[in-house]
Amino acid sequence: MTQIEVIEGEKHAREFFALEEDVQIWEFLHRFAYDETEQIAEKFTGPHPNLGRKIWKMFVRETDSRRSVSVLCTRYRKMTKNLHNMPFGTEMKLNLYYSLDIPVPEEFTREAWRCAKILLNKENLVEEFEMKTDEEVRTDIEEEYELMEGLVKKRMEKIEKEENGKLQEQRRQYYQKQKEKKQQEAEAEATAEVTVDVLPSPPDNLKKIPKKRLSSQMLENEVTAPPSKRPRVYYSVEDDVKLWTHLLSKVNSEHELNPKSGKFWKEFLGENAEKIMERKLAYHYGKMANNLHKMPFDMRMKTVLYYALHIPVESRFLEHLKSKTDVTIDENGCIVAYNSFEISGEADYIPTKKPTSRRTSRLDIY
């Protein structure tokens, strides 16, 4: 059935070729491509449909087609590109490809080789072909199936072999690690046994030698080689007394007092002292300042140190000091003015906590 499309602006309607018309054209051309008597395909000897008008006049006359000759020539050129999609058998298509010298598309090549023995030239034109018998076609299909089955089987065997190889490699690595682990454990046990048997115990005379405290060495201006690991420095009350006494001696000096700086303690430690000890004393001064009220000094000395070093006064010591003289305190709790003549030089005792025994701690004496 002919499809007709009317386009606006054109004087005539454009008619499209239906599938039935294309089939009718190919069947008409096949009469000239195949000899029914000899049952063999022949080269087209008459005027070629691509150029000749005589053959299309014959087609119009025999089929009563309303198409013009020029339209049929144009249609033929387009039809050659879709011959492999027409509803014909493989043999009929090969007859037309061979007779009309139409290039064979790649889509049709596989189908043609399955049913016929074909020889193509460089332009993909059929030079000769011979249809296979049913037995040959069946044999080729079986061989192709066996070939595909063999390829699939080989592929599966290859995959299985690779998987087995990976599994064996993983097992080998696992057992190798276990073996190395056992060897390391055995070597560690053997080393431990040898160490216990070989290493001698330290002599008794070394055990009895007491270690000298680093703080005492520092206060005596002794310089020793730094150990591989520095011991922790502990300060006794006697050490703190020496430090406060040194600070008191510097109160009336012209130099600015800055005990929080390591350089301030260089004179106290000596020229050969290590800088780390200077920094440690500067750090220890902060702790000393919090416990000045507990030192075994009289009230006058404590007050002078609080005032000169600008240290915040401990609350209970401040109450006791206010009971003795007039004291002015700034917002930080430091003494800014006081009457030194009203402070006695005797040591006073103010307990910082409830007594737990008859013995009085030296750190609780002002």
Write the layout of secondary structure elements.
Blueprint: E1 3-5, E2 14-16, H1 19-33, E3 34-35, E4 40-41, H2 54-63, H3 69-79, H4 90-100, H5 106-115, E5 116-120, E6 126-131, H6 134-198, H7 204-208, H8 214-219, H9 237-249, H10 266-269, H11 275-290, H12 299-308, H13 315-322, E7 327-329, E8 335-338
Antiparallel strand pairs: 1-2, 3-4, 5-6, 7-8
Helix pairs in contact: 1-4
Description:
Residues 1-12, 194-200 and 347-366 have low confidence and may be disordered. The radius of gyration is 59 Å and the shape is elongated. A hairpin with an 8-residue loop joins strand 1 and strand 2. The chain has 13 helices and eight strands. Helix 1 crosses helix 4 (90-100). The protein has three domains: 3-132, no CATH class; 214-290, no CATH class; 294-366, no CATH class. The chain is mainly alpha-helical and 366 residues long.
Estimated radius of gyration: 59 Å
How many structurally independent domains? 3
Number of helical elements: 13
Order of helices and strands: EEHEEHHHHEEHHHHHHHHEE
User: Strand sequence of the main sheet, in spatial order?
Assistant: 1-2
What percentage of amino acids are in beta strands? 5-15%
Largest sheet, strands/sense/barrel: 2 strands, antiparallel
User: Mean pLDDT across all residues, rounded?
Assistant: 76
Shape: elongated
- Strand elements, count: 8
Helical content class? 40-55%
Q: For the terminal residues, how far apart are their CA atoms?
A: 127 Å
**Structural class per helix/strand content?**
mainly alpha
- Low-confidence sequence ranges: 1-12, 194-200, 347-366
